[in-house]
Amino acid sequence: MTGSLPVLFGKFLSPYVRRVGVTMHVLGMPFERSVISAIDDEAKREAVNPVGRVPALSLVSGEVLIDSVAILDYLDELAGQDRALVPHSGRSRREALQLLAIATGAIDRAMTANAERRRADPDATRIERLLRQCRQGFDVLEERLHGRRFFNRDALQQTDITAAIGFRFVNHIFPGTLPDGERPALLELSRRCEEMEAFRLAEIEEP
Predict the structure, then answer these.
(1) What Gene3D superfamilies does the annotation carry (predicted)?
(2) pTM score > 0.70 for this model?
């Protein structure tokens, strides 16, 4: 697929699709969308990604990037070091990548729990274990964010985008899993981010 703008495949219910969309809005990179489901639309997903996962980003050149990590790395490269949302090198980069690993790990636990409960015979013990691990991940993020506006104190970065999106996503699919009063710093970050235009332009979409 080629055109005048890159095309983002996926729905914004997916936190991984949404963080790509939000990032592109934050960086002022216009794009078009192909709204396909991460659950349904299997043939459409496999047409852009042989393993059938979204997000995928089709570039104007015709090249297709898959997986949000690879896409975000490309967007940072395109933005340049001064505007990139993950630090370029050093301790700050290592810390950002570690926080992102915790955030995406917690999100993955919630997504796996959601898939488990959709089975004909869900394992309640496994679901609770997955959600416990999800909560533990967000507890680490809460501790690191405490007393700060953003994770690096001063400016919105990918850690903030991913943590805020993940926090809302988990509460969206598993209400009450991350109670408001237990993680006030993350709650405030989520609310602050959701008020930003970049987030409003990538609002969560229902299945």
Answers:
(1) 1.20.1050.10, Glutaredoxin (3.40.30.10)
(2) yes
